[in-house]
Amino acid sequence: MRNFTTVHDVPDLDKLLDKALKVKKDPFATSGLGKHRTLGMIFLNPSLRTRMSTQKAAQNLGMNVISMNIDQDGWALELNDGTPMNGKTVEHVREAAAVMGEYCDILAIRCFPNLKNKDEDYGEQILIKFMKYCKKPIISLESATLHPLQSMADLITIKEHSSTRKPKVVLSWAPHIKPLPQAVPNSFAEWMNRSDVEFVITHPEGYELHEDYVKHASVTHDQDAALKDADFVYVKNWSSFSDYGKILSKDESWLINNKKLELTNDAKVMHCLPVRRGIELSDEILDGPSSLVVHQAANRVFAAQTVLTEILEHNFNPNGTAKNF
Length: 325
Ligand code: CP
Fold this sequence. Notes:
The chain is of the alpha/beta class. About 35% of the residues lie in helices and about 15% in strands. The two termini are about 15 Å apart.
């Protein structure tokens, strides 16, 4: 594995998950693997879990970590070529990413969508330019369209808590007061479509996700039908893809509570966090026995550590030289 920006970067998902479970059992088994290697973590947007879990993962491998809130602490970045830089932008991504590549062996970046221009967001302009100009392995810490470290942690969590061979997993839209990206549901769908699960997506009309991510999932606007016999319910808000970035519904009847869970097969409830209590998910679920939200967050460490391990093993020689670049 050279980069980790989508499930398509993973050649063998089962192998990766087995490795993650081994890493979780013994997180310090390869504590020297990252010695003298530097992970750069670049944030254009806020984070709690991604920042702390990825830093902890790197430290478990003996890596150095440089973290930067580039939107606050760095020079304003220009992404477009040929634009005279006589406005707010001070530094071009061509130089910024190249320089970061000189300081870091692996670069991880968080870059949310603006939710105004679908083509720009789904073109993943920032991520792709960093991959092009940095010339070092890149890890997505959540991009405009995907959040693969979250999805990997989610899949580890499902594996750990599943009591059937092929669980029914339901991705259920939830109301929210702000328009949120489609990155988490897109990514979750990508990973579920590569897994041996019965996968159902339920949302109000107008919230259809991009077909590239929905793929083999069953889609229904009837939440109760979707919840029937579910083993896992993944709750998440997202804004409209077709009416791009818009809120089309705040229908509170979509809020998952204990009454709704009676339809399920004693389902476990998941959410990537942060979550607005009482808006996106009920207190009784978050405080009750069915919630897996903290387990998911805990597994972010082992997802990140496994990905870092894969990249370190496949791209660097033990003597410190890079293998492929
Ligand atoms: N789930 C997640 O990515 O959390 P943060 O935004 O806090 O990193």
